Amino acid sequence: MLSLLLVGISTCTRTPGIASSCADSDSIPGLMKNEIRLGLLLPDSGVLATGYQAVRAGVDARIGAVNAAGGINGRKISYTWRDDAGTAQGNLLGARDLVDGQGVFGLLEFTAAAAGGASFLAERGVPVAGFATEDVWLRNPNMFGVVNSVGGAVDTYGRAVTARGGTRAYVVRAGMSAGMSGTADRIGQGLRAAGVEVVGNSSYLAGADSATRLAEQIVASGADTVVTMLAPAALPALLEAIHQAGGEPDVVLALGGYDRTLLRTGAASVAGVVVPVSYRPLEAGGAPVERYLDAMRRYAPQLTEPRQDSALVSYIDTDLLLRGLRAAGPCPTRASVVTALRSLTAYTADGLLAPTNVGVARAHPTTCVALLRVNPTSTGFDAEDRNLCGRELTPTL
Questions:
Q1: Confidence band (pLDDT; 50, 70, 90) for 26?
Q2: Which of 140, 222, 227, 390 has the fewest CB atoms nearer than 10 Å to its CB?
Q3: What is the mean pLDDT of residues 10-14?
């Protein structure tokens, strides 16, 4: 599957995809006189696609805004995307096609299957920004993610649970994803470090697995806390099934659950759900939030509800790669962009993040979050804790 967003017409007279304005850049793919061509990998099909539906809107919005402001060092940004179907093989094929077939300069990657093409991209030195959900983001110095769930475990989520009276947790991860399994293990380690017993850890794929059966397992475990890593659309049915099975968890912590479309269900089961976010909560308002919402309205109108996690995080990671391109100067190379990204020591995504050292952040998990809670009428998110910080634990070998 291919979609090419053309946002500038190159006046190069040389081979397409090769720059003509920098004396030593004849061998740099994707760099042209008036354009820089990027690639995007994500699961647009397959069992994981539901959780990534808003990603392209975030990419469109950030690229649209930068192009409206003149582009990067005089060049407009375009991108070509590929569907990796959420599989390692699909990811490798997509990466090869984007780099060798389409000649892209750098890559945006929002998937749970990045391990498939990671070695290939590292060998080519392609700068990559995106969701850091697998260990390959740690091992490969060309890959950058400022919202990071890999590396050592952190006790942040455990602290959130204990502060709300939770003592026995059941962890539910998205099905069919090896990356999510590793993340769930680290979350379990962090819960235990904070004094929370982990009484269960199961995968769940909405539409394929039985919510009733999983709910019965959760209730039988005696859990007073449920920690989920599911797409927001899958939450109401599972929580309702838990209630139907006689469970009344004291704490429901939904990682990746920030999505105002969740509130449209009107389901009483989502009231009280606690959602951690690693960026400035949109409910906090202010100029950074208004700039994000304005960009979404102008350049990604196809997304009717921009207040959701996947759109905002893809917007931030797209901004990160664009900042690296800008910092590398008018004649960037792939290597100079990687170096520029590692040199960003106070990156804020235009106010959407606390100042972040990108070179450090790519190798360590996020330890500070803001906590939102679905209000009692399930009609909005209330800010509950603007800055809950934990500590990184020694990784389990």
A1: low
A2: 222
A3: 35
21, pLDDT greater than 70: no
Query: What pLDDT does residue 93 have?
Result: 98
Check pLDDT > 90 for residue 206: no
Distances (CA, A) of 14 to 4, 32, 33, 334: 20, 9, 10, 20
Domain residue limits, the chain: 3-147+284-361, 156-277+367-389
The CATH code belonging to domain 156-277+367-389 is 3.40.50.2300
Phi, psi for 172 (deg, rounded to 5): -120, 120
Measure Cα distances from 206 to 234, 236, 308, 377, 385 in Å.
Answer: 6, 11, 19, 25, 30
- Asked if 183 and 154 touch (Cβ cutoff 8 Å), the reply is no
Per-residue confidence (pLDDT) for residue 208, from 0 to 100: 83
- Residue-wise pLDDT tens digits, 343-358: 999 999 999 999 999 9
Three-state SS letters, the chain? CCEEECCCCCCCCCCCCECCCCCCCCCCECECCCEEEEEEEECCCCCCHHHHCCHHHHHHHHHHHHHHCCCECCEEEEEEEEECCCCHHHHHHHHHHHHHHCCCCEEEECCCCHHHCHHHHHHHCCCEEECECCCHHHHCCCEECCCECCCCCECHHHHHHHCCCCCEEEEEEECCCHHHHHHHHHHHHHHHHCCCEEEEEEEECCCCCCHHHHHHHHHHCCCCEEEEECCHHHHHHHHHHHHHCCCCCCEEEECCCCEHHHHHHCCHHHCCCEEEECCCCHHHCCHHHHHHHHHHHHHCCCCCCCCEHHHHHHHHHHHHHHHHHHHCCCCCCHHHHHHHHHCCCCECCCCCCCCECHHHHCCCCCCEEEEEEECCCCCCEEEEEEEEECCECCCCC
> Which amino acid does the sequence have at 40?
L
Give yes or no for a contact between 159 and 390, defined as CB atoms under 8 angstroms apart. yes
